[in-house]
Amino acid sequence: MTKASTATTINAAEAAHFGALAADWWDPKGSSAMLHKLNPVRLGFIRAAIDSHFEGDSKSRAPLTGKSALDVGCGAGLLCEPLARMGARMAGVDAAPENIEAAKAHAVLSGLNIDYRAGEIAAQGLGTFDVVTSMEVIEHVIDPSAFIIELARHLKPDGLLLLSTPNRTAASRLFLVEAAERLGQVPRGTHHWDQFLTPEELTALLDGAGLQVVEMQGIAFSPLKGLHLSRNMALNYILSARFA
């Protein structure tokens, strides 16, 4: 079990915003449609990182068999469920109780045993994990440094950390905030551009927690490819990290 912590990272207004979307989180055409489009791209990166880090069989359907995984800011479980299907003993934590209730209900329908918790990660006493993930969450917390430290506290010494977040660029302001919200691609108030972290800023926070970046890729968009992994990190990026 991890050492007790009193770290506070939840932004109550952000938790309320996302909790209000819980009912249609699993609807690929609903308010979380963009997350459904992002998920396969994230999973491609995540699967490659898992195979590389644990030196597993890239053809295995369950590369996380015998391993544990924690998704922080799990929403209604869009990432937890595929990780559980990869064989992980899975846990998910989210700031919004409404999301956790939706996640639990969907896990039952999916026949998956996932340990879902609502509240601060520091208050859960969950222990340490082989894999810790947090997708599009750090830009919504009140203290990114404390949040990274909490993620590190829940990672085993030989574990793998996976993060994704929007970059703070002119392009992300235009496309992820102004255009996406005005066109209804994401709900109004989802993004606050000034809270986005650049790759350099996030790398520094990871370094401060004793973690080093292994790989970082952009998540870009083009009319031909749609959302895809890219060297272009102007909009969004995803990374893997481990203890230095």
Could you characterize what this model shows?
This protein is α/β, with parallel strands linked by helices and 244 residues long. The protein has a single domain (12-243), classed as Rossmann fold (3-Layer(aba) Sandwich). Helices cover 34% and strands 25% of the residues. The protein has an 8-stranded mixed β-sheet. The longest helix is centred in the N-terminal third of the chain and has 22 residues, at 33-54. The model has no long low-confidence stretch (mean pLDDT 90).
Notable characteristics:
alpha/beta; Rossmann fold; 7 helices; 244 residues; 8 strands
Order of helices and strands: HHEHEHEEHEHHEEE
Strand content: 15-25%
The portion of residues assigned to helices is: 25-40%
Poorly predicted residue ranges = none
Compact summary:
This protein has 7 helices and 8 strands; from the N terminus they run H-H-E-H-E-H-E-E-H-E-H-H-E-E-E.
Q: Layout of SSEs?
A:
Elements: H1 12-19, H2 33-54, E1 68-72, H3 80-85, E2 89-94, H4 97-110, E3 114-118, E4 129-135, H5 144-153, E5 155-166, H6 170-182, H7 199-208, E6 211-222, E7 226-230, E8 236-243
Parallel strand pairs: 1-2, 1-4, 2-3, 4-5
Antiparallel strand pairs: 5-8, 6-7, 6-8
